[in-house]
Amino acid sequence: MSKKVAVVTGANKGTGFAIVRELCKAKFTGDVILTARNEKLGNEAVKMLKSEGFEVAFHHLDLCDQGSAKQLSNFLQKTYGGLDVLINNAGMSFKNDATEPFGEQAEVTMRTNFWGTLWVCHALLPLLRPNARVVNVSSFVSKKALDTCSPQLQAKFRDTELSEEELCLLMGQFVIAAQQGNHQAQGWPNTAYGTTKIGVTVLSRIQAHILTKTRAADGILLNACCPGWVRTDMAGPKALKSPEEGAQTPIYLALLPEGAKEPHGQLVWDKAVQEW
User: Is the pTM of this model over 0.70?
Assistant: First the structure.
């Protein structure tokens, strides 16, 4: 029951797949569980890693299904009695040439990137053992999007006292404004992906603050990170980093040594804390 376990979401391809591989290469002292929405693709990814000599297990996880996150939580509780590393990598973005209305793009992207991450955290954070590490994969686009928000919205997103409930309300307001076609007039950036990643970055700060208040002695560290511009299906072939290079910062945060005090509640890019 005390064996360590790491979970990586959205890991059947791209950066998530590379993160799983790099965790194994780093000789994480426990089981590594690759999750994906598509069971066939997830099992194929595990088979590929096993062919490379890495011991990885698959578990289904659909970010947009709260019941799916609860099933994963039950499995971890029953099998391991807790959780030591959680890397919330799963996410999506519409292509630049997508034809769906912006309001639809905003709703779908928010449901996956923000609400999905939140639901997984609600299901799995209660399982964290002392010295656990949590990495929420955000993006440098969140900072760029923040800089184009109105001064009022920027102040809210930089407010260290902002609650999770208030953040959820803001994310909902963006989707409504996007559907009404007046999001920019209300001070929002013209990017659904960037706004959802603002949510992930700020959520990480809020979650870290809560952990500090409720489990100060347990040494748990939780951060958001940007893998960089990575060559994946989502970012395209012109991106500067390979998936393996993109995995480096998430792995760095996931394997911060026991006793480390920081970073915690930060946005980290190329292993360096970024000003928010």
Answer: yes
